[in-house]
Amino acid sequence: MRISVIGCGYLGAVHAASMAQLGHDVVGIEVDVPKAELLASGKAPFHEPGFDELLSSSLASGRLRFSSAMADAAGSQVHFVCVGTPQKRGEYAADLRYVESATESLLEVLAPGELVVGKSTVPVGTAARLADLVTGKVPGALLAWNPEFLREGFAVQDTLHPDRLVYGLPAGADGETARALLDEVYAAIVADGTPQVVTDYATAEMVKTAANSFLATKISFINAMAELCEATGADVKQLADAIGYDDRIGRKFLNAGLGFGGGCLPKDIRAFMARAGELGADQALTFLREVDNINMRRRIRMVELAREVCDGSLLGKRIAVLGAAFKPDSDDIRDSPALNVAAQLQLQGATVRVTDPAAGDNIRRSWPQLDVVDTAEEAAARADAVLVLTEWKQFRELDPVAFGQVVARKAVLDGRQALDRDTWVAAGWSYRALGRRAG
Ligand code: UDX
């Protein structure tokens, strides 16, 4: 099939290359000319395991190209809209300007019989509004909503082997036509037996925000338990293991620590609350405000712990921050809990050195006030405390004996349950972690 992907940021670039991998003829439309050129040259503008290989092989197959001109989307049977929906500045609501402008410029080249497919995370009600716009301007064209659930660090696998496909469709014959087109796009994935949920626009839009809200709630639940563990001397890791053995609860997403960040969970729960308010249903989601509060409190607690191990004052203390991306295997620093902590430490007078295996350039660009170094050893040189704030494999595998030689004081704070407490304690370190006994 001929497919266009409008917006080649994180989601769109991975989607475009994956669709080419499935055998389709794909054009990725990206208004940022340098980004489109970079992608066309086979270079990924972000760090994502497996994506470079996927991009190169899709380009080499001749089935994938990139352009900055919407005119090149003309003639595609299916057009995926993959632009971002960030949080509005100073508000909880999602900023829909990119979705709206991408759809409007697509309408200039859209033809009857073609299908527009929204993949961006949007407030419920957006698809119905865009469908009116599409059919009003191009009678005979169709719109579907097909949310994307990919995780950074697993984006390629999640796109080619998703847990489920969700189609939000118009009623009647148009819905049947849209479904048939989507089934053709995803033929290989459907043939794998991937579950499909075929529904209306509103449900499809809500599936995404509900899923992210559930995940955020699960993380904040275990972090609330961590607060209780700190108050009682209990151990949150063992608690999570024990409750996680119950299939109904499950162990995944019960890792207590510095909490969630990134470009999705924080802004999605806030946008969901804002939309519920507009719909007069804000009471249904007031718990999400608490989910957000618990999450933000972990960052403050981490700074308190650092102050405690620095004898009550951070002024003039050297602190090493290991990890800055919002999660490992990513260079994404959007709403990074680690950088938030680093900045707070600096504000309280500490000399902070940050290192991250992938996010260094992004930190230098967006946080010029932070001192970024290349290795954990450089960051920790003569440090009074070492904070592990993103659980990269490189940090998990540090040898506490050798690493102990570079610091001034062997004090480690494990913000992500990344280290084996006993090994570090045996090497002479004092070990502190959120929700766990000191070692
Ligand atoms: C999330 C959803 O998982 C994905 O389905 C959706 O499409 C986009 O948003 P992502 O933002 O890539 O994906 O990251 P995710 O793996 O969900 O982690 C989000 C944050 O939660 C990270 O900061 C991570 O460190 C944190 N987290 C995750 C925890 O603190 N504890 C956990 O147990 C799991």
Explain what the structure shows.
- The chain has 439 residues and is of the alpha/beta class.
- It folds into 2 domains: 2-199, 3-Layer(aba) Sandwich (Rossmann fold), CATH 3.40.50.720; 241-433, Rossmann fold.
- The chain is 44% helix and 13% strand.
- It contains 18 helices and 14 strands.
- The strands form 3 sheets. The protein has a 6-stranded parallel sheet, with helices on both faces.
- β4, α4 and β5 (115-118) form a beta-alpha-beta unit.
- The N and C termini lie far apart (59 Å).
- The model has no long low-confidence stretch (mean pLDDT 97).
- The protein binds uridine-5'-diphosphate-xylopyranose.
- Uridine-5'-diphosphate-xylopyranose is lined by residues 149-152, 212, 215, 219, 253-255, 257, 259-262, 264-265, 326-327.
- Residues 149-152, 212, 215, 219, 253-255, 257, 259-262, 264-265, 326-327 line the site of uridine-5'-diphosphate-xylopyranose.
How is the topology of this model organized?
Elements: E1 2-6, H1 10-21, E2 25-29, H2 33-40, H3 51-60, E3 64-67, E4 78-81, H4 97-107, E5 115-118, H5 126-137, E6 142-145, H6 155-160, E7 165-168, H7 172-185, H8 187-191, E8 196-199, H9 201-232, H10 236-244, H11 265-278, H12 286-309, E9 318-322, H13 337-347, E10 351-355, H14 360-366, E11 371-372, H15 376-380, E12 385-388, H16 393-396, H17 400-403, E13 411-414, H18 421-426, E14 430-433
Parallel strand pairs: 1-2, 1-4, 2-3, 4-5, 5-6, 7-8, 9-10, 9-12, 10-11, 12-13, 13-14
Bound molecules: uridine-5'-diphosphate-xylopyranose (UDX).
